[in-house]
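Note to self: keep these together.
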Amino acid sequence: MLKVNNLTFRYGRRDLPVLRNLSLDIERGGVYGLLGRNGVGKTTLLYLMAGLLTPGQGGVTLDGTDTRLRLPSTLADIFIVPDEVRLPKMTLAEYVRVMAPLYPDFSHEDLCRNIELFGMDGDVNLGELSLGQMKKVYMSFALACNTSFLLMDEPTNGLDIPGRESFRRLIASCMTDERAILISTHQVRDIDRLLDHVIILNDSGVLLNRPMSEIGARLKFMVTDIRELVDTALWSRPGIGGTAVIAVNDDGVESEVGLEMLFSLADQSPEVIQYIFRNR
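Structure:
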């Protein structure tokens, strides 16, 4: 388990905390979505989880070991894919020869499959790739390392439409009960079908931290022209095909979660989210 315990972090001693008393657990066997406005601390949290930043208070542990210690056993079981990827001027084969030994569960077979799924040639020079191509190669390598915890910051930035579809297929094909993938993104439509769990940050803390199944059981997401439903909805937004609404789910049937709609509700009316999910 990747455990965040009462974490507080600020970049300067006189700065306001980016994160304050934040606690959450990331367990193996799920795909987690990390959402929040710009500046709310999503990237900072990922770097703290990976042990690349030092918290002012609290800490992060991976199976009981402080990630900030950067022990070889920890580094071999956690991988972070940053928003902006930069790779050295060498062939992919050379890169793998240098980097793969750091990850005991690295699979050359998985790497070839991942590269192929992105429609790329494995015989490439990393220094000659575009930003999108570089990201495809780096994510292919990251997933081939088979670490228990994979942290991804805006992974679909720089990808074209086919690349985004390949990304979704790749994540779905690589998930196992022994792995957790945490994806921080603003491109919620790229990941909404992948997620098992949603975490929304707000005001330097956690606003929502729930499984998708529970969210769908408590909230109903739909598009309707029925005025009564629109008027009594927790959130609504007119559209071409009708009005998108979120309502309390009281019919006992799990609703398909509209992730973009959920984030809009959380952003505009966080008190509603707190009320619906309080002490539950």
